[in-house]
TrEMBL record:
CDD domains: AAT_like. GO terms for biological process: amino acid metabolic process. Residues 180-514 form the Aminotransferase class I/classII large domain. The gene is asD. Keywords: Aminotransferase, Pyridoxal phosphate, Transferase. GO terms for molecular function: pyridoxal phosphate binding; transaminase activity. The lineage of its organism: Bacteria, Bacillati, Bacillota, Clostridia, Eubacteriales. PROSITE patterns: AA_TRANSFER_CLASS_1 (PS00105). This is Aminotransferase. It is an enzyme of class 2 (transferase). It comes from the Bacteria.
């Protein structure tokens, strides 16, 4: 183990493997030396939040208890029960709530259900039966894309959080999937299966971006030609804003670019696009590349007030990807969605394809008229190799839990939960920068789920260009990561693994207790001050040698 973790061996790996794979090596190194640092490894490379939404889970378990009673009403024999009966189920639910009013989760469950019935004019028994049958999980998902009532609740939640106008209500289709990662895989595959992208085609990535979006396009089955649209704008103090200049966005005028992939707010800095930046993008697309396919991953959108997704500006061109994982602390549940407007460029491109006969042949066993199958339904079929389309769809208990999370926020008119999660992230960022003895730049587009620190920029700002040049000439970003892990048991991720600046490091603000961020800030500052002292001693030695030589 020690041989595999020596500095030279790790240095050979650096930049050749994913930042997440390299992180595991650093964790192993930090564990060997953690006793130096109070026996704790501070893994700020991990994006998993250390909070959970409690009350929607309580509502879920309360619903589960009611659902079991409903099944036992049909018949009960030792460890066996029947399947729930729809007739009269809503009145029995009301009675259950009255009897169990003091049970945690029951009040919220009733509030979500009553809100949904009023808001969407649901038939009471139909809706309750869908929830009960869904949480029991004794039937295949039907329809396979989304359970009918649940789709309306999830749709409303997405419209709210993605900043879509109410005029879009019921104009989007939702495909619930096994987390945002499954959404990514399904979209890449279906784009290829439908010849919307072919091997060697040109796509664009708005960088920096989540590492898999950099890695997937180069897999042998895709081998896409990748154009990077890089966030290059700076503010009046020369701080990177993570916005895109008009010049960068105009790369998209090239109609050879067939698809654009965006993470917004971005990863690793979790900064959202400004309205001005989005409007420039919209202008380029509408004037010069009107058939551009856009895929936007908006998982961190809920950590910004009044967020506006690309899909709210360009619904015709855009597929939305959203995962509930970060906001509700449900990475283990695997709850994600794919969102697509009913009128979209993907359907148009399939219908106009010169190869549409061969494309449609893939789906011929699903319909006598496979040409009528929309792209969203092709996504569903492709997720199960088409032949298993009849068993497609996210498990029904997962869909029920998703509906309860979404319903919980829809009835939270004061956004108390949203404000709580935002405040956690903002507070931790403030503590990190307090430890660094540096000021946080105020930015309404900053989700503060992650942050980036550029060591060279920081060194230049506080100690001058000569010192930053000394680091550049004598060290590498790997040295910083290695020393933080080896000497302080602190794990960060290298920003260039996300196509960000070479000397930037991503710090997750989501997964450690508040006080640890102050410690991380102090440790980074301590490491850099050690380098500063080394630099000063080196300069002093040079001066002495020069004096002697004179």
């Amino acid at each position: 183990m020690k041989k595999r973790l020596d500095k030279n061996t790790l240095k050979d790996l650096y930049g050749k493997v994913s930042p997440f794979e390299f992180k595991d090596k650093l964790i192993a190194l930090a564990n060997l030396n953690k006793d130096r640092f109070k026996g704790t490894v501070l893994d700020a490379g991990r994006g998993n939040p250390n909070w959970i939404a409690t009350t929607p889970r309580q509502a879920f378990f309360a619903l589960g208890s009611f659902a079991i009673e409903e099944c036992e009403r049909t018949f009960s024999l030792n460890n066996l029960a029947g399947m729930a009966n729809k007739k009269g189920i809503y009145l029995r639910f009301i009675n259950y709530c009255n009897v169990n009013s003091s049970t945690k989760g029951v009040t919220l469950l009733k509030d979500i259900i009553d809100f949904s019935i009023r808001e969407y004019n649901f038939n009471e028994d139909d809706f309750l039966f869908e929830l009960v049958d869904g949480i029991i999980g004794d039937n295949y998902p039907y329809p396979d894309r989304n359970l009918l009532h649940i789709e309306k609740i999830v749709n409303s939640y997405l419209m709210k959080e993605l900043g879509c106008s109410t005029t879009y209500n019921n104009e989007f289709d939702i495909f619930s999937v096994e987390g945002g990662t499954a959404a990514m895989c399904y979209i890449f595959d279906s784009l290829v299966h439908n010849n919307l992208l072919n091997k060697g085609d040109t796509i664009a990535l708005m960088t920096p971006i989540f590492t898999p979006y950099l890695e997937i396009p180069h897999l042998p089955e895709y081998d896409f030609n990748v154009i990077k649209i890089h966030a290059n704008e700076v503010d009046e103090n020369n701080n990177l804003t993570y916005q895109y200049s008009r010049e960068e966005l105009e790369k998209l005028k090239d109609k050879n670019i067939k698809a654009l992939f965006i993470v917004n707010p971005n990863n690793p800095a979790s900064i959202a696009l400004t309205n001005e930046c989005i409007e420039n993008l919209v202008d380029v697309v509408k004037k010069y590349n009107e058939d551009l396919m856009i895929i936007t991953d908006d998982v961190y959108c809920t950590f910004i007030n009044d967020f506006k997704s690309i899909i709210s500006y360009l619904p015709y061109n855009t597929i939305g990807v959203y995962s509930l994982s970060k906001y509700f602390g449900v990475t283990g549940w695997r709850l994600g969605t794919i969102l697509l407007h009913k009128n979209n460029v993907f359907n148009k491109l399939i219908n106009n394809s010169p190869n549409k006969v061969n494309i449609n042949n893939r789906y011929k066993h699903l319909s006598l008229n496979p040409e009528d199958i929309t792209f969203i339904d092709r996504l569903v079929a492709d997720s199960r190799k088409v032949a298993l389309n009849h068993t497609a769809g996210l498990s029904t208990p997962q869909q029920v839990q998703m509906a309860l999370f979404c319903g919980f926020t829809l009835i939270d008119r004061k956004n108390e939960y949203k404000n709580s999660t935002i405040n956690i992230c903002k507070r931790r960022k403030a503590l990190l920068f307090e430890g660094l003895e540096s000021e946080v730049i105020d930015n309404s587009m900053d989700a503060s789920y992650y942050t980036e620190i550029n060591v060279i920029d920081w060194s230049k700002k506080f100690h001058g260009e000569d010192f930053s040049n000394y680091i550049l000439e004598n060290y590498t970003p790997f040295d910083i990561l290695y020393d933080l892990a080896n000497e302080y048991s602190i794990i960060l991720l290298n920003g260039d693994g996300f196509a960000s600046s070479e000397w930037s490091f991503r710090i997750s603000l989501a997964n450690l207790n508040d006080n640890f961020y102050f410690i991380i800030g102090k440790a980074i500052k301590s490491l850099l001050l050690n380098l500063l002292n080394e630099y000063k001693n080196n300069e002093a030695a040079i001066e002495i040698n020069n004096a002697i030589n004179l």
